[in-house]
Amino acid sequence: MTMATIERRAVLGLGGALAAGVTLAPGITLLAAPAERTEASAGRRWAMLIDSTQCTNSCTACTTACRKENNVPLFGEPSRDVHWIRKVELRDKDQRRPSVQVPVLCNHCENPPCVHVCPTEASFIRKDGIVLVDMHRCIGCRYCIIACPYKARSLVYHETRRTDESNPNVPIRSKGVVEKCTFCVHRLDDGQEPACVEACKKEGKGAMLFGDLNDPRSEIAKRVHTVATKTIRPDLGLKPRVYYQGL
Amino acid sequence: MLRFSSLVRFVLTVLPIAVGLLWLNPSLVMASDGQEHVPGALRLEMPAGKKECVKPTEWMRRNHMDFLKHNRDMAVREGVRVTSDSLKNCTTCHTSREKFCDRCHTYAGVAPNCFECHHYPK
Amino acid sequence: MIDEFAAIEGRSQGYWKLIAGMGLLLLLGAAAFIYIEVNGHGVTGMNNSVVWGLPHIFAISLLVMASGSLNLGSMSTIFAVKQFKQFGRFSAFLAIVLLAGGLTVLTLDLGRPDRMLLIMLHMNFRSMFTWNVFLYSGFTVLCFLYLWSMFQFPQFTKAAGSAAFAWRFVLTTGTGSIFGVIHAREVFHSAITAPTFVAVSLTSGTAMSILLLLASFRFTERELDRRLLFALRNALIFFLLLVLYLLIVEKFTKFYSPAFYDVESWILTGSYAWLYWGGVVLLGVLGPLAVLFNSNLGNQIGGIAFASGMVVLGLFCFVGFVLIAGQAYPMNMFPGYEAASIFQDGVEGSYAPTLVEFMLGLGGIGVSGLLYLLGIRFFRLLPKKATAPEGWDVAWHP
């Protein structure tokens, strides 16, 4: 343990200098080149804005890209298939307006009930506001699935296997743990946007916008502060960080 | 009822059993393949053309598990990612998992399950 | 009056048959656990809408019953009903035993039970589960001290019994709060959920004690005074009325507000209404009340036993309803809209339990039953004969 601590200090010392170089350019750090050492910044608040007017009904670019990027398992059983992001069709109960489809994913709440109920702190909020599951620590009690009002989480019910199409940069799953959207944390730390956002820009109409809410110069901060947006179930007081425009 | 003497008796019974088990050394017994082993280090296939790991070899031999675990927790929970210390970086030199990781882990009778989920190239 | 406790002989064929039966349940549970462990939770009927199923119904029912079975002891230690002092040991032991069975199932149904001890290493004190870890272990310790004091140190019985009595309320409040505090689930999110659990624990614990006392005394051919049973019947009636009151208050409050019309009418008329009306209301409360209030049946041992059996089944229905209906009711993510997706948004969750889950749940009953049978064989838990003083009678008969 002592050895590890000493080593950690050395690593931090070395990395600190490099990290300073990375954070010198706020606002455009998202596109910075991969560095030897990167660290999540407590000053950031990653958030997403989804413009429902730009989301085409038949388009599934985001969900497909997510499944490919994160090796999200499909078991062929609709009630057990894992979906980190899914398109939800909304129809007004009075049937007057045409139905709209919007992607729904983990809302990365500021007050996440899943984190509150997790007995082992396997679900946690990272410094930059991303809600994550530490799959090395999850005991599979599923209390978080009970607590989440967005149906964002799933248990892995079966064994998963790596195939030739699997993304080598993302682990496959161990059965019996709970998983959910990570905002593509491995891509963020590498200076890229989440896979769904990238796919929406490329194949869709760019309905998804991603960025740092704490950075006043970022596109998302400007939009959230100027355009009328909604979050899902604001009455629960969870302060979600996935905003919807035009709902 | 619970008496001090029965407590002493309990300890005196459990102690020899524990000592006996330690003497048998289950990890060695489990790792044995039934043949006589010549005492000494297990010869592993080292990366060709490389002299030193990211840390001294001796240190790595003893501490790689804590090192990796610590880095794992730092990466997952704090978002600290150090390329040279990552599991992925190990695989750039130690190209064969079977000949390097698995052989020693089998010899030592330990079963880490990193690669049930994580990818080991090739 | 209570000088004579004796362990049962436990040499009869019947005793060994019971041991074998409980052992078989235990083995079934163990087999189910290994099967689920190897194949993953895919072999159960649980899915991403209903993530807690039959094992949890068994586990939580046993836990709720555990705190309730302390009733008999508390009646003598706290409320100075001297006639029940002879059941104190039985009651504290039963509490520990039922708790053990429930916790076994609860922990063995985890997705990764091998990592269970991580709860001890990384505690999140905001989680009801972490609280419950302390509540369960604390309750076991207190019940053990209570039991010990009744055996050896009668001067501490009052203190230990009072502590256990206070703890049991916190414990069952904690169990009920696992559900009550979850805002996302409209069916059980309510401040009254936890008190209802407490009331249900009072009824089911008393009922379980009645059944076990009757069986144990009959099989060992010991004498059990009918008047003691009538006293327990009256307690059971009182607890049942308490449950009925809480159920009515909850429905009244919810139906007063139009915001709850959807969910409440779903509870009373939707696809799990049969469980609510048939299981919770009829089997759990009204049925037993009708039997116990009946001047014929309520004054017979058979009638009281029948009502107690209904109460215990009603408890399973109650926990089952809270769990399954609570999860099956679709999340109301977009109020005013109808939602549909490939992830069952806006659709009722479905749950069809499989045999293997049922076996795992039976394993918990096997643990409790086996421990109880061994307990009364090796410890002096039950009185040689349970009597009440001459001329004493319960205050009321139906």
Task: Please give a structural write-up.
- The complex is a heterotrimer of chains A (247), B (122) and C (398).
- Helix content of chain A is 25%, strand content 17%.
- Chain A is α+β, with helices and mostly antiparallel strands and 247 residues long.
- In chain A, strand 5 (123-125) and strand 6 form a beta hairpin.
- In chain A, helix 2 (61-70) runs antiparallel to helix 6 (195-202).
- Chain B has 6 helices and 1 strand.
- Chain B has a domain at 55-122.
- In chain B, 8% of the residues are buried.
- Chain C is mainly alpha-helical and 398 residues long.
- Chain C has a single domain (5-386), classed as Up-down Bundle (Formate dehydrogenase/DMSO reductase fold).
- Chain C contains 13 helices and 5 strands.
- In chain C, the strands form 2 sheets. Chain C has a two-stranded antiparallel sheet. Chain C has a two-stranded parallel ribbon with strand order 2-5.
- The interface between A and B is medium-sized, with 32 and 25 residues.
List the helices and strands and how they pair.
The complex is a heterotrimer of chains A (247), B (122) and C (398).
Chain A: H1 2-23, E1 37-38, E2 46-51, H2 61-70, E3 85-92, E4 100-105, H3 113-117, E5 123-125, E6 131-133, H4 143-147, E7 154-155, E8 178-179, H5 185-188, H6 195-202, E9 208-212, H7 219-226, E10 229-230, E11 242-245
Parallel strand pairs in A: 2-11
Antiparallel strand pairs in A: 2-9, 3-4, 5-6, 7-8, 10-11
Helix pairs in contact in A: 2-6
Chain B: H1 4-24, H2 26-31, H3 57-78, E1 81-82, H4 87-93, H5 98-108, H6 114-117
Chain C: E1 5-6, H1 13-39, H2 54-68, H3 71-77, H4 88-108, H5 118-121, H6 128-151, H7 157-180, H8 193-219, E2 223-224, H9 226-256, H10 261-269, H11 273-293, H12 301-328, E3 337-340, H13 355-378, E4 382-383, E5 385-386
Parallel strand pairs in C: 2-5
Antiparallel strand pairs in C: 1-4
